[in-house]
Amino acid sequence: MKKVVGTFLLAFLAWHASPAQSNQKMDQFIDRLMAKMTIEEKIGQLNLVTGGEATTGTTVSTDVEAKIRNGQIGGIFSMSTPTKIRKTQEIAIKQSRLKIPIIFGMDVIHGYRTVFPIPLGLAATWDMGLIQQSARIAAEEATADGINWAFSPMVDISRDPRWGRISEGAGEDTYLSSKVAEAIVHGFQGDNLAAHNTMMACVKHFALYGAAEGGRDYNSTDMSLHRMYNEYLPPYKAAIDAGAGSIMTSFNDINGVPASANKWLMTDVLRKQWGFKGLVVTDYTAVNELTAHGLGDLQQVSALSLNAGVDMDMVGEGFLTTLKKSLDEGKVKLTDIDRACRFVLEAKYKLGLFEDPYRYCNEQRAKTIIGSAANHAKAREIAAKSFVLLKNENQMLPLKKSGTIAVIGPLANSGANMPGTWSVSAELEKTASLVEGMKAVLGDKVNILTHLGSNLLEDPTYQKHATMFGRTITRDPRKEDEIIAEAVKVAQQSDVVVAALGESSEMSGESSSRSELDIPANQQNLLKALLSTGKPVVLVLFTGRPLTLTWEDAHVPAILNVWFGGSETGKAVADVLFGDVVPSGKITATFPRNVGQIPIYYAHKNTGRPYGNSGDFEKFKSNYLDVSNSPLYPFGYGLSYTSFTYGEIHLDKNTLDSSSNIQARITISNTGHYDAEETVQLYIQDLVGSVTRPVKELRGFQKIFLKKGETKTIKFEIRVKDLKFFDNNLNYVAEPGDFKVYIGPNSRDVKEKDFKLL
């Protein structure tokens, strides 16, 4: 016991030293510890197993307690509560030879018990302060429940909404995704990773997972280095520069080499080019899956993964069962095992686990912090600000708090679906449905009628796959026409119909790729029937991705996209529908007109025969015969209950050099009838370059508040660094020449001005 106390005291003293002294103390501490470790114990630190509380993969770890005693486990994820985690930690501290504490992880993706909007919805707030607060609250709750490692943020750029995991990221844009990544890392890790209420972030999935071929999960990615460095890698780099303590490998292969065996990616780029000094962990059984990729048996692929630069093996136990044999056979080096072991131990040291392995096991914190009223109030605020008003014909919204409203649709009465995908710690049974949330907000001011309207999906097997993990939506066994006819009778008794339609929470997320992105056909039939009543209809759209809404946009007078808003979805929807909150969300992934347009994104490049903006087909131009090139809703788009007028752009000068910046000014006026927020977006176009450049790139944004009738002048600084990109030789340069600056409420409706870089 004296040795344990001495070990903890040495670690404790390090926290009161300067950063350089702390690093030196940490190095000395780990040097001494590793000198005592056997090869088997070092390899044991590289083994991350599951506690099995949440289903995030198909493999379940076994004999966990015995392996802890034998020094064969470095970390556990999917285990919670201070009692359970303390009990498990005590096995390591009291019964293993070297008493090395365990790190405890969890998929804390968009909240913990208090759930915030799905990440695609969080990004739609364009409010980095709120996004950071959501991660801070998630860290407060998760650490109060014993957890100190979050497998978040997911920073994968995706320009293909068929990919279900687009819901877990910030969308299609490199710049915005980088800002979101920074905010989440700062929210999780705070200023002191060793504090009892901060946790280590894990950036995922490294790399290019969002560009999987065909939008099919786990699929291959083949990409030029030029595109990779300019469009897909920056958010990972931004998260690392923000101080993220760990990074997770992706499932996909990259130009023929799977990420978990990709030495160029894990060592040359991550370690050497970017200087990352944190922990590299695989995704769930990713090492084992290298065999299915065709790289060899478990021993071969485990050696490949370690040699590539991976430090920790999640669940598969290939490292645990084969690395000693590979070392004896000369297929791996002791220096690589030592490297991996050191990064695992450093993570634990930085989290303060050697100082106090039970620092996250405070029962009182768990009772007072998790799911608090204040946390739920913030979740409600953020949810309301994530919603995007896609259409509001004749100012149909907001609704009056009077009369009778029919809330109809398969998402109307399903509280379990409100948190959205990857909310593994949500208390589904305690989450209010849309109808329950509306009743809580409106009380007896409004008479609310409700009906299922239609099944989520006509095919019961498809619906079963789309409502896994406790997200069941009860099916009506009757024919769809009968269900719809009954719903129409309910609608006819109302003044206004709220149609709660779209996806269930598990129709997006991991392994939820879709080849068609329409609202399901039976739900569309319901919507048509509701419109035929002549009653005003509001479509409250639930989705984890951009959908193809061409028919809905043409026929439904009001469309409010609410994503999946988290624990307080129902109340937040009521807040916006009835005008207590004015919608301010803006989409961060382009909505296509049809699936055939995919990939569609705003920062595309011109061809040598660029398509004009007329919308008409032009022979021998880069366009479709059967549909416009333009999206249904462009990147950055979102309406308000008020109206904003943009003036012209004014530049304080029209030339830029390395010694000074250009200031761009624009006046924004609230010309409507509501006080509201607006996100002002700045884009840059490089007109002439050594390589082809995008037609626009987001390089700044400001979320502002304007009272009705108020005008503000907004200022942006344009700097040389805002013009930089990776050229064909991967040099990071800003090339002299002509540029345009665009400012507007979205990527399409912009003012423009010219300037030069000298």
UniProtKB/TrEMBL annotation:
Span of the signal peptide: 1-22
Transmembrane segments: none
Fibronectin type III-like domain span: 678-747
Pfam families for this protein: Fn3-like, Glyco_hydro_3, Glyco_hydro_3_C
Reactions catalysed: Hydrolysis of terminal, non-reducing beta-D-glucosyl residues with release of beta-D-glucose
Enzyme's top EC category: hydrolase
Superkingdom of the source species: Bacteria
EC number: 3.2.1.21
One biological process term in Gene Ontology: glucan catabolic process
Family per record: Belongs to the glycosyl hydrolase 3 family.
PANTHER family: LYSOSOMAL BETA GLUCOSIDASE, PERIPLASMIC BETA-GLUCOSIDASE-RELATED
Protein known as: Periplasmic beta-glucosidase
